[in-house]
Amino acid sequence: MRSYVDKYQQDGIEELLKINYYGRQANLDDKQLKFLRLELDDNIYLTTGAIINFVFDNFNVSYSASGMRDLLHCEGYAYKKPKLVPGNPDREAKEDFVHYYEEFMETKDSNVEVLFIDALHPQHKHNTMAGYGWIKKIETRKLKTNSGRQRLNLHGAINIETMEMTLIESETINRDSTVQLLEILDQKYFDSKEIIAILDNAKHHYFEEVKNIIEQSSILKLVYLPTYFPELNLIERVWRYFKKKVLCNLYLINRNYFRYPYCVRHLRF
Questions:
Q1: How deeply is 232 buried, as exposed, middle or buried, from its count of CB atoms within 10 A (0-12, 13-18, 19+)?
Q2: Architecture of domain 91-131+146-266
Q3: What is the pLDDT of residues 206-244, one digit of tens each?
Q4: Is residue 267 predicted with pLDDT exceeding 70?
Q5: Rounded Cα–Cα distance for residues 29 and 33 (Å)
Q6: Which of 128, 178, 243, 247 is deepest in the core (most CB within 10 A)?
Q7: Closest CA to 97 of 265, 255, 231
Q8: Domain ranges of the chain
């Protein structure tokens, strides 16, 4: 405080507004920092200690663990998991599908129904799924959970124009549940000119029983999505909404809360 008073008495408010603090120079120069950034962008180090060793081996500069963490934060790095992505996705197939889909939707007959099909497996979502939220720093929020694992499988289809959901519950998601869902869709949209069912490349979607349903129906047609691009299946957005709306940070007494009527009430946009 004395220092501030002296500065003010000597040179007035202008002296107080000056910034006289300058951070300590980094132990690494610009060239070395650039080299370190290139290394971290190409390789994932699991520990701060491993990076400290890399810096010492290459630049003969020593860092403490806290000092290295501070340096990494200043350089824009954070300790987190990488995102898993397919090693060899066919991006050309993805672009072709998107182009064909957009063109088809613009020109199709109004009596042609387009549905996206996929399954949701909230088996251990019966055990409460904790999600991030704003909580006081000094407070520990607790959520009740259940013991054991009760499995539930929902196989669904969404009409992408009307946003109408068709859901069934099945013991497992396999060829039988696929056949059951397709039969329901065939009956539900019996007066349509055509039903385009878009689904992924799961093995059970290619079974003979599934092909037989398509052959027996005069209006059902299957379209398979390009491999490794689940984001193209628009029902995935419904499942994400469902997890956020129903499952996240919610204690469910038993799996009956997942069942069809309850799901329908919450799958509204």
A1: middle
A2: 2-Layer Sandwich (3.30)
A3: 999 999 999 999 999 999 999 888 899 999 998 888 877
A4: no
A5: 6
A6: 178
A7: 231
A8: 2-74, 91-131+146-266
